[in-house]
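Objective 1b: paired records.
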Amino acid sequence: MNTTPGIRENEVRKWLDPRVDGVEGVIKYQQIIGGHSNLTFTVADESGRKWVLRRPPLGHVLATAHDMAREYRVIKALEGSGVPVPKAIGLCEDTAINDAPFYVMDFVDGIVVRDAEIAATQPLEVRQKMGNSLLETLVSLHSVDVEEIGLGDLARKDGYIERQLKRWKAQFEQSTNREISGVFEVHDNLLKNIPEQQGVGIVHGDYRLDNTIMTETGEVAAVLDWELCTLGDVLSDLAAIIAYSNNLTGMETQAMSIEGFPTPSEVHALYDGLSERDLSKLDFYVSFAYWRLACILEGVYTRYAAGVMGSEADTEAIEIFGERVLLLIDLANSTFQDFLQRKEDD
């Protein structure tokens, strides 16, 4: 009898058993809360061994929306690359086993710093180490030769920013129900000024502190959540970290907003010191990162304001969320103006 929604326990056990040299005793499943759309479960047997299982959400989803094979392929390819990822155990695309494709990887023990409250429990020197390791790992990811590890055909290699602008503009138009000044103006300005892409690298697509597992001493033990991973302009990943490290009003809940983690200028300097990429046009990418985050959060705000997310947030918290979207648009616009100014000065 299945007791875990999303897991056909007997069938999954039979599939897993030969891939881990035999499962011992009863398997316990526990859903890990805090991810995005895909469902993540810890899988533990009585010997104390633990794994992680990832599968799409319950119910109908678009075939391409939650591509388990793609995530698995990326993690498998990165093993031994210098980028810390969990060891891939196996991919199951036979939906007769668990109603949907899934994959299993090793469980990596450590700390997931989801917000400022958790970050504040870490000593200052550990937070500093976490920030450094986060940037070092990102540079390592961006230096991976995609052809050498077999990911050269993972996605289109050009036009990344242009495609992102189109995608998130459409997402914003579909999700908002209010007039927000500047959203489309920033979009149009960005579209007309896309810098030439510097080579092709792996873009994580959602690289930030809470999508990693950290050791107690502040090293990245594993990078998680590869569902948005693609090929393209890697400076978008760097810009996203800068957006998440901003401690301005309305961003206080972000883990990297508290003391010890690098400020936006320090993030820039850390990456610049480790990478050979030209960061002279980074303000463009930071403007894009603020704008993209605003589009994402507007969708979340609209759902909360409409009450479709249940009673998890009170009215005041919902309004603060809505104001954060406006703040991000202002930041996107002012950062774009900085980009134009530097362009003129050069």
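Objective 1b, second protein:
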Amino acid sequence: MRLPALFLLCLTALPAQTLLVLNKEDSNLAFLDVKTGKVTTTVPVGFQPHEITVSGDGKFAFVSNYGNGPQPGNTISMIDLAAKKELRRVDVSPLGRPHGIFWSEGKVLFTSEANKLIARYDPVANRMDWMLGTGQNTTHMVAVSRDRSQIYTANIGANTITIIDVAKNYEETVVPVGKGPEGFDLSPDGKQLWAAHSQDGGVSIIDLNAKKVTGNFDAGTKRSNRLKFTPDGKTVLISDLAAGELLFIDVATRKVVKKIPAGKSTEGILITPDGATAYVAANGDNVILVVDLKSRSVTGKLEPGKGPDGMALLP
């Protein structure tokens, strides 16, 4: 399908970058030139990939192959980004449903929903070398603090966020939040964690020093999926999967300042480091929206494949 002329005109103003997009229905990783709007390469990965992380040197990507309801996944794909091929498909059995994935200090952290834990994969040794149970249902997303002192997970089924202190022998603090916490992000100053509830429309704000909820508000979403801070820390974006909307929230006032239509099954959000652009996956429409964060409007659409979700950006 040809992209509309207006969208192509807007895309030519973007810097030359490669957007990595996981297409769940195609079970592949697409390399997409954001300037031309064209897919240059696709790489087959495991069944129904959901999330992606890139190594610190930009040489490799790691993909969690989650699977679906009747067919749970149990692999992680390692992609050579220069050669644009899958180097290996790592069987993480007996762990199942790997989902959240995060590169940290030369290794890959990932969640296992089926086993209520997070694990770590060492790509040099090609083995899992550590795992830690959360004891929480549906441990879904994972992130690490900038100084690597803490690890965080969102536990959808338990209505909790877990904070793990690395230096304290991986001591875990379980913080109760609203119903179905799924998308979350750390504020750029590292002081707060904001978690969007997928089942009650709310957002919990956790003070990471105190390790407790210090604020919450109703964002009015039907089913929040992802939450991301802009690099300046002034705005939070939330994708509403059920409503097909992208929300803009003013961090200072904790108010929704704008909603824009974002397409069927709005899911993944990726914000560029300069804070100028957001890429938003409309899974049900098979497109990635290009959103100008200054005007808070859609300026383009990219067509990566069927069922886009997790994304990463290469220079």
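Residues 148 and 311 are 22 Å apart (CA to CA). The mean pLDDT is 94.
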